[in-house]
Amino acid sequence: MKRQGWFGGGSACLLLVTVALCAVLRPSDGAAVMSVDLGSEWMKIGVVSPGVPMEIALNKESKRKTPTTIAFRNGDRLIGEDAQTLGVRFPANNYGYLIDLLGKTVDNPMVELYRKRFPYYDIIEEPTRKTVVFKTGDEQYTIEELIAQLLQEAKGYAEESTGQAITECVIVVPGFFGQAERQALVSAARLANLKVLQLINDYTAVALNYGIFRRKEFNETAQYFVFYDMGAYKTTASVISYQLVKDKATKEILPVVQVLGVGYDRTLGGLEMQVRLRDYLGQEFNKMGKTKTDIFTNPRAMAKLFKEAGRLKNVLSANTEHYAQIEGLLDEQDFRLLVTRDRFEELCKDLYAKVTAPIDRALSLSGLSLDIVNQVVLFGGNTRVPKIQEVLKAHIKQELAKNVNADEAACMGAVYRAADLATGFKVKKFVVKDAVLHPIQVVFAREGESGSTRLVRRTLFGAMNSYPQKKVITFNKHTDDFDFSVDYADLEPVLGKDEVANLGSLNLTKVSLMEVAKKLNSNKADNVESKGIKAHFILDDSGLFSLANVELVLEKTMEKEDDESTLQKLGNTISKLFSGDTDDDEKPATSEEASKEDVPKEGEQSDGKKSEEEKSANASSAENSTAAGENEATKGNKTEKPKIVTIKEEIPSQVEVLYIQPLDGSEFEKSVSKIKALNEVEDSKKRRETALNSLESFVIDAQVRLDEEEYASCATQAEADLIRKSCSEISEWLYEGGSDADAETYEKKLEELRTIANEVYARHWEHNERPEALSALKQMITGADGFLDKARNFTKEGNAEKDVFTQVEIDTLERVIKETIEWEKTEVSEQKKMARNEPVRLTVKDITDKMSLLDREVKYLVNKLKLWRPKVKPTPPPKVEKDSSKQEDQKTEEQGTDDAEQVIEETPKQNDGEEEPSSDEWQQEDEQGEIKPSKTEEPSEDDQHTEL
């Protein structure tokens, strides 16, 4: 309640202005974006909002990463650490390691491996799409639905961190994800009501994060790095280059990060090590013979072992030995076993032999060797295992770089990309060029000369080609409706035999073209030539393949009209001779598609190249006649090249997806309804818990306060008894069965109790805040009184030269000050006579109202003083003697024209061209308070020029 004086409140005023300016400049809500690194074990959420740098969003436990697990039990849904805790007791109800099940049928080798690792899950087949469905009792959940709920949780953490609604995101995915997996993840994001700006590969995101902090280290010479990642589920190695490149469009020199080679192993990761350690602990427990029950038949015991194996794996990374210990593992039997690092490494001996294979494959695909690689950079949690680092160091024969955050580098690189793609942010440009890991080809049937049909394959996007990019392929032999398919090309040289099976279906889409013959027949003419059917394909920055459009391209030759009269021809010819222009028909037509195509037309050469005859004809038609005597007849005998117009007609096409159908249509709506129902149940549960906690807290707080003198003195005996009685009744009701009531009942009882208690709390607040409010009022009175003393010197009576305030204004302020002082003394005196539990006479609001009245009067005078300006008498210019002027004129006449400019420059200007008033005239102007305009002289040539 303290208020600064009017002459000493500059800092406070500046602060208010700054706050107001920030409020005006603040961007609109919804500008924040996020990134999600959705790993197999953990998810990290990066956020960026206007005015706030990139950061990691914290979860409800204030941690920087959240377990990617989700559990359902008795109608409740749990996510993260709560789900992990429940999963130990009910492992079949807790779902984790979901990311690698996206976009896969139940017969996929990765699904079979998942079943082997976690045998207690009931996995069934989705009848329409043949994908994985988890069944728990009567409930069934698809992978997309489970992932969507994890993304919703991530969205909630991001919104809580930024305080803004978030609808856009960039999601980090494994680079080996195929079309089915990427489409499934996009569908999951749609279920979570998120727009995916990009699916960015994990190694690309890390490379971007690594590069943005080292811009100054890059130059026009390419620098090569290997990024090695071993996560929970997989291992990846990527060869990355950094280089400064000049942009052709903007002419800027920009840093470019480009992926040159990738190698990976889907099954090599920390999870496989943890599973092996779990099975080892289980075997050792069975050997102890503490119970006749086989531990591998008990899901709860296996879940406990799995959790302990994960802890033990992390501890052995820093220690040579450690005890595994679990209380009540099975049949109330405890388990304790010493495990050494050597034993752990022996269990994973065959896995360590695979550690370097991804690096070798990545280097092979990039065409580079380790000799020219600057560094091998580690990221991913399991690269911390000492044995992994030992094997890598022995292979590359150099030190390993650990200068990125192994857990958060991918998430931070992705959020930088999100800020770049989203509107409302301006970031330093860093060009990203990813690499095609799964080559894509077009396959179509073509009839040969003998009448036999053969399949023709044309590669669209080759292995390690950079993307995003567009490609065009031309079909020039088909004259009727036909089909073609888009498939993965030869994958074994790129991925290896085992990885091809894990990818699933190798057929992507089947495209059926319609109305081909109809379009061709409708455009038949002597002057129309078909250039084939062109299909346009896109591989966007998310690595998603799509058919953009299909069109028939025709070239029509426009004939020169012969109905032009001789007189018109003569006029046109003469006009061209004098203007130097050429006829538009003489300009060669350029096919737009010819410049774009880089895929041959069914083995034939592109028609985009022009013959030498066409080039020479174009050159000759562009030349203007230089002979002065050239006549119309000579001009008319020249051969003019006909104008060629390109015509494009859309060909209707139907695309059939041959891999797993994306979640869409009625199935998508069903999933939306299911997730919405789960969200409503969870919101209702949160509301009920909040209402119950608020009611219990208020009851306890009210009982405690009434035992304190400062609160008890503010209540009458009847009020105190009523509050205590109400609190006692609510406590008994909660204990006897009210704990099962709904949120509305809790909120209603809380409102009733507040109505009773708030009257007492309000009196206590008034008595507690009144001294500070009165102190602020007294300070304001003192300040106003001091201002009044100074203001009396700014009246006509006090100082004639500083006539700012009238006597009425001074008297008004003096009256308000006196009335405020008298009111304050009277009200304080009367309030002191009253008991604390009586209705309050002098409220804080009454005091602030008086302060506002006094503040208004003083501010009026302060503002008037700020706007006041003293009247300044203008100083008369010096007189110029008439004799001197005559002498100057006579001198000017006597001198020659060569000295005229010098005389003008030496002549002093008199009052900007105005005649000087006499002393009598000046005195009259001063008395009247204005200056009359005087006669002006003719401006000279120099006076007409104003230099700015």
Q: Could you give the topology of this structure?
A:
Elements: H1 10-25, E1 33-38, E2 42-49, E3 52-56, E4 66-67, E5 70-73, E6 76-79, H2 81-89, E7 94-95, H3 109-117, E8 123-125, E9 132-136, E10 139-142, H4 143-162, E11 168-173, H5 179-191, E12 195-201, H6 202-212, E13 223-230, E14 235-246, E15 253-265, H7 270-288, H8 299-315, E16 321-330, E17 333-340, H9 341-347, H10 349-352, H11 357-366, E18 373-379, H12 386-396, H13 409-421, E19 431-435, E20 440-447, E21 453-461, E22 466-467, E23 469-475, E24 483-488, H14 492-495, H15 497-503, E25 507-513, H16 516-522, E26 528-539, E27 545-558, H17 566-579, H18 592-596, H19 612-622, H20 632-636, E28 643-650, E29 653-657, H21 665-706, H22 709-712, H23 717-736, H24 743-791, H25 807-832, H26 844-867, H27 882-894, H28 900-906, H29 919-928
Parallel strand pairs: 1-11, 11-12, 13-18, 15-19
Antiparallel strand pairs: 1-2, 2-3, 2-4, 5-6, 5-7, 8-9, 9-10, 13-14, 14-15, 16-17, 19-22, 20-21, 20-24, 23-26, 24-25, 25-29, 26-27, 27-28
